[in-house]
Amino acid sequence: MMMQQFLPLPGRTVIALLCVGCNSVEKKIYVHLNYTVPCVRLLNATHQIGCQSSLSGNVGVLHVLESEDNLDWVLSKGPNPPYLVILEAALFTRSIMMKLKNGSNRVAGVAVVAPNTNPTEPFSPYTTCPNENTGVYTEKYDPAYAHCNVTVWNPLGNGLAYEEFDFPIFSLKDDNDTQVIRQCFLDHNQVVNGSAPQYPLCAMQLYSHMSAVTDTATCMRRNDINFSISPEGVCDPLGDSNVWASSRPINTTQKGHKNSENVIILDSRSFFFDIAPGAQSSVTGFVSLLAAAHALRNATQEAPPNRTILYTFFQGETFDYIGSSRMVYDMENNQFAVDLDNVHSVLEVGQVGLRSDSQLWLHSDPVSRRNSSVNDEVRKLIENLQVASKDLNVTVNQPQASQPLPPSSFQRFLRARPIPGIVIEDHQSVFTNRYYESMYDNAEYLNISYPSNLTADEQLEHITETATVPFTLSPPTVTRMLYSLLIKSNNSWFQEIIPSEFMSRLTEKPTNFYVGVANWQSSEPTFLVQYLLANLTGTVVNVTKEDCQHQREDDKDKESHHLYHYMWVQGSVPPNGTQRESFCVRSTVHLSKALSPAFDPLKEYTSTEYSTWTESRWKTIKGRIFLVASHELEMLTLGVGVGVLVTSLLLTYLISSKADILFSSGREPTNATY
């Protein structure tokens, strides 16, 4: 690693004689980057993926890559390796990244400039066959359908998110920081007519050291090693909470027998940690289901259906079906409110596009339909959906009977037993989503935009074209949800439907749908969906704040907490008032564990049946730029420093050895008297 000389950026000065105002000196040397989002390390039963820096951070001379042809300067020709490569989003391709990976002894890291608008070219860092080894289509179930042999669902997937890089990769927001980086490169590092730039050179340092290595079994074993008073783990299992609600109350402390009909996926993943908007891959599906649950609330209360509708939002599905596999496991082991015998059928809403020209496709499993009773129920589901689609003026179709299910939570139910079910998607075979599981799967991709002259509250209520698609049922409700999830959750509507103590969890940016690690606090999307579902399906009850927070109607009520969940929410400020009018919402919304059984309770970290994904821990994530001197100047500085040190030691020795002479004073005779 190159030495970091105390050279200021242009227009700055350095005073290094005394350590008075060291912080000021540090600020003059470095320019810290304000918005940096790293690629982090993930591990499973067999290997590790992702990125990391060395313990002290990776340092490299900045090089802004102009084209793939320009890679030679980084990989072979450039005289000042290692290089830290700045990539525009259009150059963040598998071809370029793999070349940088293979030449990593000359590459200190990569910083990708995230564009303010989506690129014209498709981009999906996911694999071509999502959740290939943990769905229902295995060699045991039907070899013909295993490994996406029939349909490659995500042909645009480049698999970058599943590669391992031994250098850090950061995403940089295209703002003032990026302009400073570009200017620093132009002033100091730009290659002119093929000649090498002169020192000092502009350099960057990225910190993203990851604690975990090898695989999940290794890191979990290291977690259990405790040699200190305050032990620090090295990794955590991915996980969160599933959100579910029922059309009529179910006793959650006793195992009931209620039929389940609706299941949906809630998850997304991007290449970069903390940037996973999931607009089409996740938001469209569960916004459609939330709107349906809202529309069905009054209908099911006035004319209760024969079967209870269970609205389920799974977390962690991108990572080998964490949420759905956990619920199926709990149902099989009597750890959930219902069991698999209660499940009559599954209707899952996947990627539904929310575009005016969208068609819906009703996917089913050809293997389980070989069972006549399952086939009969699937046909009834299809007929009912076709009838309903006519009322909504929506076109629905069926793919070929031999086509398998797309990646879906329903596959985990089928893995347990044959169950009738349909998966609703906007694609017949391959995904129509051009940015599947990428940072570009955002509001812009769904054509959600607002006139510039609108206030935040006016944007919240502004009905976009996306919200008026026929099958969204309630455009005003849908437009609020889309704004809250894809633009910012900190808005007047969400402030009304959450408790006051959770105000700090609302943000000014799009929701991050990355599942995160299992801990005591639910993730951002789980928190938002929980309160959305309660608001859309619950009932306002006239109880005191104390009773509401104690999960009861009054102090004599001992039963309601088994059936309902009570939430004391802020409410709105009346037109002529100054304080919010809070109230209590009673709903059937509950949370259940979305942690792979491989971790709890099985502790089988090499499992092939359940997800084994973990996320490495880290201490510091940051980036900064500065100027570095030439190697010769570094050596000269080092030599002068060593010379000064040796000289000072020699002088100290000489002075010390002659101290009695140099510092002696005239002494009086020993026999002097007074």
Notes on the protein architecture:
The protein has 674 residues and is an alpha/beta fold. The protein has 2 domains: 25-224 and 620-631, no CATH class; 239-485 and 510-535 and 589-595, Aminopeptidase (3-Layer(aba) Sandwich), CATH 3.40.630. It contains 17 helices and 23 strands. The protein has helices at residues 22-29, 71-77, 94-102, 176-188, 216-224, 279-302, 322-332, 372-392, 410-416, 456-461, 475-486, 492-497, 524-537, 545-549, 560-563, 631-657, 659-662; strands at 31-32, 36-38, 42-43, 48-49, 58-64, 83-88, 107-114, 169-173, 201-207, 235-237, 239-246, 262-265, 310-314, 346-349, 360-363, 396-397, 421-425, 539-541, 565-569, 583-587, 590-595, 614-616, 622-628. The strands form 4 sheets. An 8-stranded mixed β-sheet has the order 1-23-9-5-6-7-8-2, with helices on both faces. A hairpin with a 4-residue loop joins β3 and β4. The protein is globular and about 105 Å long. The N and C termini lie far apart (72 Å).
Top keywords for this entry?
674 residues, 28% helix, eight-stranded mixed β-sheet, 2 domains, globular, Aminopeptidase, alpha/beta, 17 helices, transmembrane, 16% strand
Largest beta-sheet characterization: 8 strands, mixed
Domains counted in the coordinates: how many?
2
Tell me the CATH topology of the largest domain.
Aminopeptidase
Count up the helices: 17
Can you list the strand order of the major beta sheet? Answer: 1-23-9-5-6-7-8-2
CATH hierarchy: architecture of the largest domain = 3-Layer(aba) Sandwich
Secondary structure category:
alpha/beta
Shape: globular
Strand tally, please? 23
What is the multimeric organization of the chains shown? single chain
Briefly, what CATH class of the largest domain?
A: Alpha Beta
Low-confidence parts lasting 5 or more residues at pLDDT below 50? 1-18, 261-269
Strand content: 15-25%
Helical content class: 25-40%
Q: Give the radius of gyration.
A: 31 Å
GO cellular component, one term: plasma membrane
Organism: Sphaeramia orbicularis
Protein name: Nicastrin
Main location: membrane
